[in-house]
Design brief:
alpha/beta, 7-stranded mixed β-sheet, 6-stranded parallel β-sheet, 18 strands, binds nicotinamide-adenine-dinucleotide, binds zinc ion
Length: 342
Amino acid sequence: MLALVKTAAGPGLSLETVPDPVVGINDVLIRVRKTGICGTDLHIESWDPWAARTIVPPLVVGHEFVGEVVEVGSNVADFERGDIVSGEGHVTCGLCRHCLAGRRHLCAHPVGLGVGRDGAFAELVSLPMTNVWHHSPDVDEDVAAIFDPFGNAVHTALAFPVLGEDVLISGAGPIGLMATAVARHAGARFVVVSEPNPVRRGLAARMGADVVVDPGARTLQEVQAELGMVEGFDVAMEMSGNASALRSAIAAMAPGGGLAILGIPTEEIPLDINEIVFKMLTVKGIYGREMYETWYKMTVMLQSGLDITPAITHRFPFREHEAAFATARAGDSGKVILDWTA
Ligand code: NAD
Ligand code: ZN
């Protein structure tokens, strides 16, 4: 099969012919149709310090995908050829305390698809059946391709109740954009999105933000005054990984607020813990998606009118992966999709 491979330690990815994946008795073999490019793939492609200490080449990269089941292992009863599925990108151990208790998102030993095992930027991908999600037939194929990051957005956006609350989202990358639409759909009063990139601010407005803010131009306190907010944001979602975004969010939160942190900073961030203590904020780290409560919520919110399609801005045939990666890296985009059927 053809696959996008990190062949050796160092920058770059190349389209290679590699052996088809092995299908174990508990595995599902999937013919990939569409994939989404994630920041993780960009880190692996550029071979930054995180990739250099994490990735062992050769590795097929990629974890956001939709595809069609083509073969199942002998133990697999609930998937059939032709089923349209996606994969949960965290392959959990099944043996640790939280896995045994059914809280698989808290697994102590998760292995990342396209990070710690061969991934989905390929014509075929094999996954344990416990990592495969059946799509309902009404899900748009491009949306199905990005259920993984959509799940990050939903996991974060539903970490604290948003009904009737004032919400701040820091960072309008693909995940912040989707979280904007989810917060709106879930009944927030005001959704304010802070983002330095004007293209992404425009996308955030299309996703349903009431106000988009350039953090270099205006303070969140000015925005709050303009909206008639009195005590600050009730819920904040940190989706930038940026230090000043995190500090500004904490400073703009109301007493008793909930702060969900998804963004991954590249270095330590000094914080004034007094602000967290005296406002009695609840801080929650978010990693991945809940298996499979988040996947269920994604499906039913789409069925009840949630539209995340404006967050998908670019589509490329897989052979044009270099142009696709360059587009995703440049940042004037939402989600970038690679089409493996073209
Ligand atoms: P992204 O890098 O495309 O988006 C981050 C956005 O933050 C960019 O648009 C950037 O312009 C913006 N930003 C930079 N400085 C800012 C500031 N001071 N204030 C407000 N915004 C600022 O990333 P993404 O793919 O949307 O992912 C969002 C974050 O979540 C990233 O940090 C990513 O590494 C992380 N992530 C975490 C998980 C997890 O499971 N915890 C999973 C996927 C991604
Ligand atoms: Zn586990």
